[in-house]
């Protein structure tokens, strides 16, 4: 009997405040979708870092005869065979080095032609203008500074370049977008909380006569408050459900059926990452409105 009464009160409350309840559902859905999207974006950045940082190399470019007049690091002339042997030997001694690849000027020119074959500048360089280099794969890509310290400014070395630094701007951009999404999410959560508070207040005011009678016949405060709390929780649950649909739809349509086909070089997150986020979205969607309603009722439901 009590359960039937509570359920009937929930139905009455939702019908009386249908517009505000709909606004709560929409704001909760959008804010939680942004929250889930931010968590997935952070996971995507971590996945990309792990994927690309494992593949990047440190390039030690050696001086050629064209660098002697234009680069201060090569003022003493092109690299000698003795200097190349010494550099290779020192690289082999370092614990942070996993593997060393040597690229000759002819190989560098061939790779350049393959990479920029459609560019009008492809014929602007000749093989003798290309640089020899050692491509070094590190056991830990974050230990780049070891090579930077050991080989920068050394005779025969024109430059030590970490390919990882070329990716930092991309990751900084993605992190910035993630922070922006978190800010929008926080704003939407505030809007959702304000709507929940106002909805509960209006609902409590519209049913003040019924709650007054319940108090007179000895009903407990929690029993009086329970329908209002469940109304808010139900609206939050529906909003969380829509948020989950948005996240699953974004993964299926945006990532699986579009981005993965357009950008084949990126290792995108899988369904396991999405599935891990969904329970969190549902839990927040239920608990946030329920707690907000409970706190609001303690202040405004005095009968």
From TrEMBL:
What region holds the FtsX extracellular domain?
56-160
Q: Give the organism the record lists.
A: Streptomyces boncukensis
Q: What is the lineage of its organism?
A: Bacteria, Bacillati, Actinomycetota, Actinomycetes, Kitasatosporales
Pfam family for this entry, one: FtsX
What the entry lists under NCBIfam families is as follows:
FtsX_actino (NF038346)
Protein's recorded name: Cell division protein FtsX
Tell me the subunit arrangement.
Forms a membrane-associated complex with FtsE.
Family, according to the entry, reads as follows:
Belongs to the ABC-4 integral membrane protein family. FtsX subfamily.
Query: Matching PANTHER family, A to Z?
Result: CELL DIVISION PROTEIN FTSX
The residue ranges crossing the membrane are: 21-41, 179-200, 221-254, 274-297
**Can you list the GO cellular component terms from the UniProt entry?**
plasma membrane
User: Which BP terms does GO give this entry?
Assistant: cell division
Give the function comment from the record: Part of the ABC transporter FtsEX involved in cellular division.
Residue ranges of every copy of the ABC3 transporter permease C-terminal domain listed in the record? 183-299
Top-level division of the source organism's lineage: Bacteria
Does the keyword section mention Cell division? yes
| Subcellular locations according to the entry | Cell membrane
Q: Which UniProt keywords apply?
A: Cell cycle, Cell division, Cell membrane, Membrane, Transmembrane, Transmembrane helix
UniProt topology in membrane: Multi-pass membrane protein
UniProt KW Membrane keyword: yes
